[in-house]
Every structure is written in structure tokens, then in C-alpha cells.
Amino acid sequence: MDAADEQGEGLEGLVEAIPVYVPEGEERPGRVSSVTADPVAGTPLRAVVDFGSTPEGRDTGPDVEVATRVWDGPAEERALRGLCAERALMERRMRDPQGGAALSLGEDACWSQAELSVDGGAVRAVVLVTGMCWVAAAEAEEGVLVRVYTPAPGPGPLRLVRVHDASLLEPMRGRG
After folding, report:
1. Could you tell me the pTM of the whole model?
2. Mapped to the 3 state alphabet, what secondary structure does 74-109 carry?
């Protein structure tokens, strides 16, 4: 049991503190792969849940990843593009032998829009497609951005539901 669980925070506290989303109909438990907390308040600002990632063998990454970020600014296209680009650039730097020091998305990056369903409501999403990934970002609810990632060619899941039952999630696990 980790310290967060001993304090009653763990996964139950996470799904109470921040909206966490998973693809509708996904039967695999989502693994919480990252949580970022406010350094002063200690409350979660960002949570990432992935599906298909495994600590055994070579890490090829998840086949689906859903990130939630608390956002106090306007959910303008620039913010959504930034959220998409952040994930695509991370993927390029990790997987592309020529992209280890990349500061740009690459020449194959293509922007578009799509409609996501988040808890049954339609939201406009910004979509970024590269030769390595498909990433979409939208405002899930006021003050909350959601990002869906999947390896290319995509598209990733377009229907998300909010997690209310922490037993649908697996805790972070080490890769040591």
C-alpha cells in the first residue's frame, strides 16, 4: 500500500478530485500512468490513464491514452493545439531515432477537427495526426480539458465516459 492509499487519497480520491475519462465500452482496466498535483494545494491538476501498456518486455507504449487537465484559462483552439502537440512531440522524441532532440512536430503533422462525445455530450475537438500518432483535445467540461492519444493511424476513441468507480482503474506501477 502506498502513502496516498494510507491517507485515503489513492484512486478513490483521484476520481473524486478530478474528472477521469475512459473510452466508452473499454473492457480493460485503465492504468493510471501519471498524476500531476498542484505544488501548494496538493490537489490533482492532471491525470493520465492508459490502456494496453505493460511493464513486461519492451515498452511500446499504450494503444490508447486519455489525459485530463484542470484548466483555468479559456479553452481556445491554441490551448487545445498545445495539448495535442505536447503529446505528439513527446511521442516523436521517444520513438523516432531522428527526433530525439526535435523541437517541432515534423513535416507530416496535419491539423483538423472532430466531434467527441464526452459523457453523452458532443464537444468540438482539435485533432493532430502525424506519421506516429493521432491526438485529439477538447474541453470536456468547464475548466477541464481532455486529450485522447493513440498510435497512428487513428482515429482513437471518439466516445468517452467519466469514471466514477475507482475499481475500474489500476494504480501506477513502477518500471524498475
Report:
1. 0.86
2. CCCHHHHHHHHHHHHHHHHHHHCCCCCCCCCCCCCC
Residue 7 burial by CB count (10 A; 0-12/13-18/19+): exposed, middle or buried?
exposed
Q: Exposed, middle or buried by CB within 10 Å (0-12, 13-18, 19+), for 99? A: middle
Of residues 146, 121, 176, 143, the one with CA closest to residue 66? 146
Q: Residues 125-131: contacts with CB within 8 Å, 24+ apart?
A: 125/80, 126/77, 126/80, 126/81, 126/84, 127/84, 127/155, 128/81, 128/84, 128/85, 128/88, 129/153, 129/154, 130/88, 130/91, 130/92, 130/105, 130/106, 131/106
Q: Cell numbers at residue 132, please?
A: 506516429
pLDDT, tens only, 50-82: 988 765 555 566 789 999 999 988 779 999 999
* DSSP conformational letter for 54: -
| Partners of 32 in beta bridges | 49
Strand partners, 99: none
Provide the 10 A C-beta neighbour count for residue 49.
Answer: 27
